[in-house]
Amino acid sequence: MSLEFLLTSLVIVASPGTGVLITLGAGLSRGRRAAVVAAFGCTLGIVPHMLAAITGLAALLHASALAFEAVRWAGIAYLLWMAWMTLRDEGALAVSSEGAPRGDGAVILSAILANLLNPKLSIFFFAFLPQFVAAEDAQPVVTMLGLSGVFMAMTFGIFMVYGIFAAAARRHVLQRPSVLAWMRRGFAAAFAALGARLALKER
To answer: Cα–Cα distance between 63 and 70 in angstroms, integer?
Structure first.
């Protein structure tokens, strides 16, 4: 395993995106435990893309415009739905002094769906993993599984840091209703922006 792989993975994982927003929202709304649960859900959401890349299914998404567009627009719709529910303060990730109305399962499901419905992740893994597998590797699949495991561990660890930081600030945020309102708007705008970015991207 190369230092280049670790550094590249670190940059990718630490970059703000849907998973970071979900983990921050869970930490702010329900505290540290919920942040860990959300980080776990986001990490699980990587598994289908990892398997798709290793088995070659990502190549189908890349080659088939219809398959790619179907997954892409489903992802866009889900992100916009999350933006709307967050704005209304009715979603599982709502920032509220009363805590989110749904349980851990809903948080995990939201996190998995957010990652699952992004075809860019499959194509990313399809292009990313092979770069760190030597041409003479006798067991490339095993190597890619190992690299994916490291990537997932980094994802879980870094997202936990994001979430625990948010949970630490939770009490201060909850004491200020105006801050809560702006936080909801900010999260809603961020989800909408991610949906718009996915809509504007091409294969």
So the answer is: 13
